[in-house]
Amino acid sequence: MLALRVIVVDDHPLFRDGLTALLTARGVEVVGEARDGLEALERARALRPDVVLMDVNMPRLNGLEATRRLKIEMPEVKVVMLTASDEDQHLFEAIKSGAQGYLPKSLEAEPFFDLLEGVSRGEAPITKTLASKILGEFAGQHSRSEPVPSDEAESLSDREQEILKLVAAGNTNRQIGEFLFLSENTVKYHLKNILGKLHLHNRAEAVAYAMGTGLIQSAGVC
């Protein structure tokens, strides 16, 4: 059972109702629903949820702009964007908007709940496919030059660089811990240090920064 209070935001009633029913069946407390970004802001102000599951494309106010406004007003509320396809072009805009994670609607129930559970542990849900898109984007931007890591990147320890590489591959804290024989709390501690040293807010930003500075090369990420 996930101890999360959630608002579901989507302009399609069938999808919204179906997701609400699925979450409720798993013991997640759905405290509200909204049909667009403006309603999402109203519900979030009134209900102060832990997480908002936010559709990207909606009338009146889309999910990206709603996320920007929500994070300014309520930075403690986590927003997970929901997209109709892995090919959605709003991935990078969502990251810049402050979204905690970004998940395709095509995701099956078990991996969806595994990633959502990570939110309660302070993780940022993002699939391996979307993580690879971030890597590919930054690899393309820097393929013509030899990037030089910044002072902040050089301040990372060998262990922190190792963990950052595994984060970039889309692994959860639990998976990283199993791979490195560390506890989840130890992995979380390292990640907190990594984000602090790099002056970043979430995993997606960390992956983008790592590729942008050349700290991680896409060929080296499995």
Structural account:
The structure is a single chain. By secondary structure, the chain is α/β, with parallel strands linked by helices. The chain has helices spanning 13-25, 37-47, 63-73, 91-97, 109-120, 128-141, 151-154, 158-168, 173-180, 184-198, 203-213, and strands at 5-9, 29-34, 51-55, 78-83, 101-104. Strands 2-1-3-4-5 form a five-stranded parallel beta sheet, sandwiched between helices. Strand 1 (5-9), helix 1 (13-25) and strand 2 form a beta-alpha-beta unit.
Summarize the structure.
By secondary structure, this protein is of the alpha/beta class.
Draw up the topology in text:
Layout: E1 5-9, H1 13-25, E2 29-34, H2 37-47, E3 51-55, H3 63-73, E4 78-83, H4 91-97, E5 101-104, H5 109-120, H6 128-141, H7 151-154, H8 158-168, H9 173-180, H10 184-198, H11 203-213
Parallel strand pairs: 1-2, 1-3, 3-4, 4-5
Helix pairs in contact: 2-3, 6-11, 8-10, 8-11, 9-10
For this structure, the CATH topology of the largest domain is Rossmann fold
Gross morphology is globular
Low-confidence stretches: 141-149, 218-222
By CATH, the superfamily of the largest domain comes out as: Response regulator
- CATH class bucket of the largest domain: Alpha Beta
Tally of individual domains? 2
Order of helices and strands: EHEHEHEHEHHHHHHH
Return the structural class.
alpha/beta
Note the gap between the termini. 31 Å
Number of strands: 5
Strands of the widest sheet, in order across it, are 2-1-3-4-5
Task: Please give the share of residues in helix.
Answer: 40-55%
Beta content? 5-15%
Count of discrete alpha- or pi-helical segments spanning 4 or more residues? 11
Mean pLDDT: 79
CATH architecture field of the largest domain: 3-Layer(aba) Sandwich
Report the sheet with the most strands, covering strand number, pairing sense and barrel closure: 5 strands, parallel
> Using only CA atoms, what is the Rg?
17 Å
